[in-house]
Design the sequence.
């Protein structure tokens, strides 16, 4: 029986995919795999039998990736599963930034008790909330992954002139991107030309504080900045200073800090990007499928710490190995298996930084002793034999 532990409530649309050979729930002890949304795992102790963690969402800041890799635990995420939900929130934030809708709603609520004078007061006071339309304005989208591509296409359909920047644009994203999106060759081009700028990149050493005093200085006066990707992408002190100076017209984000609250022209949205039933279902379904495929067939897709390796079965026995990415490891494995009269029928192997993953379909008897010999190799981190 394969044991799956849920650290958060996971949509049954996903958990129902585990068949009769699985037990899944929040009370599962000593699990073989874990499904998680936002729960922090940094202080958790991992048992030796834990082989995989699936994050029902895109970000994995709540998971200790280095620790998982060192212990041969594959970490999955679900890129694109909540992309439409985030796209809709970003488009809503652009409208809120432009039209001062939230301020207008709050002001309207203050008219309570004015009786028959409400219509006249509305007509008199509404001029305080005038704001520009999106159509015809320039939007810069930094990062054209699943979310950025949807935002770019949606903004173009609203009549915006959209510039996209992503030096690592994938083939799949390129296929999904409207041909009307203009290709920005540098961030400076985005900064110089765009009325609205939205960031959709991961938080890495190279992207931390990418929106800062220096980059803001290159932007148009009155620019609108949106950050619904990661909090650390925008330097909070620098954005507050730019708002106070009038360089930035509005800053909309769902990564809130105390210093951002109660500040004029900051639009603080709760972290609602994936808070839709459709998104939760999509993430849970995708996470469950990733775990099942890895547990039953050893195939890896959408892992954040191991290479993507998938192969159709060509024999009844499959050996799956996570190992250090060092020279001659595969030849050592082949030699050891050959000495045990085990023949490799098919094989896939890929590396990712300091780790590698190999799938070997074999014929011959893979005994417990053979498994121990494989595990004894210094390069080997984890061995799984699937029959």
Sequence:
């Amino acid at each position: 029986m394969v044991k799956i532990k849920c650290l958060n409530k996971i949509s049954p649309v996903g958990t129902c995919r585990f068949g009769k050979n699985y037990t899944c729930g929040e009370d599962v002890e000593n699990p073989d795999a874990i499904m998680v949304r936002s729960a922090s795992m940094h202080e958790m102790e991992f048992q030796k039998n834990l082989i995989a963690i699936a994050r029902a969402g895109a970000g994995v800041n709540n998971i200790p990736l280095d620790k998982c890799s060192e212990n041969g635990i594959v970490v999955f995420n679900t890129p694109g599963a909540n992309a439409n939900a985030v796209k809709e929130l970003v488009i809503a934030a652009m409208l809120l930034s432009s039209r001062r809708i939230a301020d207008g709603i709050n002001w309207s609520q203050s008219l309570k008790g004015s009786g028959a004078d409400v219509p006249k007061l509305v007509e008199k006071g509404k001029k305080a909330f005038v704001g520009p339309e999106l159509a015809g304005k320039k939007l810069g989208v930094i990062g054209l992954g699943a979310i950025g591509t949807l935002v770019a296409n949606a903004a173009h359909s609203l009549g915006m002139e959209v510039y996209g920047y992503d030096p690592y644009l994938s083939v799949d994203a390129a296929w999904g991107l409207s041909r009307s999106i203009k290709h920005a060759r540098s961030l400076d081009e985005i900064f110089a030309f765009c009325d609205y700028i939205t960031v959709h990149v991961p938080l890495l050493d190279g992207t931390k504080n990418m929106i800062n005093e220096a980059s803001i200085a290159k932007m148009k006066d009155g620019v609108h900045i949106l950050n619904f990707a990661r909090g650390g992408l925008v330097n909070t002190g620098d954005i507050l200073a730019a708002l106070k100076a009038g360089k930035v017209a509005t800053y909309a984000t769902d990564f809130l800090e105390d210093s951002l609250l109660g500040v004029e022209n900051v639009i603080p949205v709760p972290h609602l990007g994936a808070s839709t039933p459709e998104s939760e279902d999509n993430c849970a379904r995708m996470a469950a499928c990733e775990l099942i495929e890895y547990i039953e067939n050893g195939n890896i897709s959408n892992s954040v710490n191991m290479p993507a390796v998938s192969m159709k079965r060509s024999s009844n026995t499959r050996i799956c190995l996570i190992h250090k990415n060092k020279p001659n490891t595969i030849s050592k494995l082949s030699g050891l298996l050959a000495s045990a009269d085990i023949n490799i029928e098919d094989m896939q192997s890929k590396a990712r930084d300091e780790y590698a993953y190999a799938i070997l379909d074999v014929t011959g008897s893979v005994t417990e002793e053979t498994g121990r010999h494989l595990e004894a190799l210094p390069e080997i981190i984890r061995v799984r034999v699937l029959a």
